[in-house]
Write a structure and sequence with these properties.
single chain, about 130 residues, alpha/beta, Rossmann fold, globular
Length: about 130
């Protein structure tokens, strides 16, 4: 099991330069989880793709459905006090700290490309490259 941040989820569903890496990641560990916040962040990302005419409304609707289906039962509430404790100890946003808190709670890695999270939570956060390294 791994916690994945919203960017990792986006790269799974939207073609781009990280697509192959993310597909390798899901083959190695398909048990992905996220805090419930992921859905709002994902909707926001999809709205950006939609507004910039990168993906059509029909494609966004399919992607949303697929992602929601995949994460059904795999998204969790996070304790506010844990999140705020992480916020106090870092310069990361509360949004980012939700992902860190969930990973710490479950004793699993958080996979992210976010350099700030990787730097400030090195015992929890791992890049996909590091995770896949032999």
């Amino acid at each position: 099991m791994i916690v994945v941040d919203t960017n990792i989820i986006c790269y799974l569903y939207v073609p781009g330069h990280h697509k192959i890496l993310i597909e390798k990641l899901i083959l190695q560990d398909p048990d992905w989880v996220a805090p419930r916040l992921w859905i709002s962040e994902f909707r926001n990302a999809m709205s950006g793709y939609l507004r910039h005419n990168i993906i059509s409304f029909e494609e966004v609707a399919v992607i949303m459905s697929q992602a929601e289906s995949f994460f059904h039962g795999r998204d969790f509430e996070v304790d506010s006090l844990e999140v705020l404790t992480l916020v106090e100890r870092s310069t990361c946003s509360a949004y980012d700290c939700e992902f860190v808190a969930l990973a710490q709670d479950l004793h699993v890695p958080l996979l992210t490309f976010d350099k700030k999270i990787l730097r400030q939570f090195p015992n929890t956060a791992v890049s996909p490259h590091q995770f896949l390294a032999p």
